[in-house]
Amino acid sequence: MIYARRREQEYFYTSPDYGHLASKMGSVYLAKLLSQHLESVIKAKIPGIIALINKGIDEMEAELDRLGRPIAVDEGAKLYTILELCRAFDKIFKEHLDGGRPGGSRLEKLRS
Q1: Which of 5, 52, 72, 112 gives 20 to 30 Å between its CA and that of 33?
Q2: Which span out of 12-16, 70-74, 103-107 was modeled with the highest average pLDDT?
Q3: In total, how many domains does the chain have?
Q4: Is 48 within a domain?
Q5: Which domain of life does this protein belong to (predicted)?
Q6: Is 19 within a domain?
């Protein structure tokens, strides 16, 4: 293969018809151009692919929320679920106490 490429390059450099274009001729140059083009096409398509994946994830998350999350089957998973629920409750309760959500001002009045 190396020999064939060397012969191809010699042909273009010594050819009276292609000598002035020799640096832009041959399979090595063509492979380089095609690689650059493929790279630019891939880079251009990546944001759309990421958006499509994120949209699919969001749709699946919404469907899981609608259907209900999986129920824990083993003790560790049940404990994790309980702790997650406690954390969510704690966060919302703190927001109410700090006045970050409606109703917090009423609780503030009760504290004083």
Answers
A1: 52
A2: 12-16
A3: 1
A4: no
A5: Eukaryota
A6: no
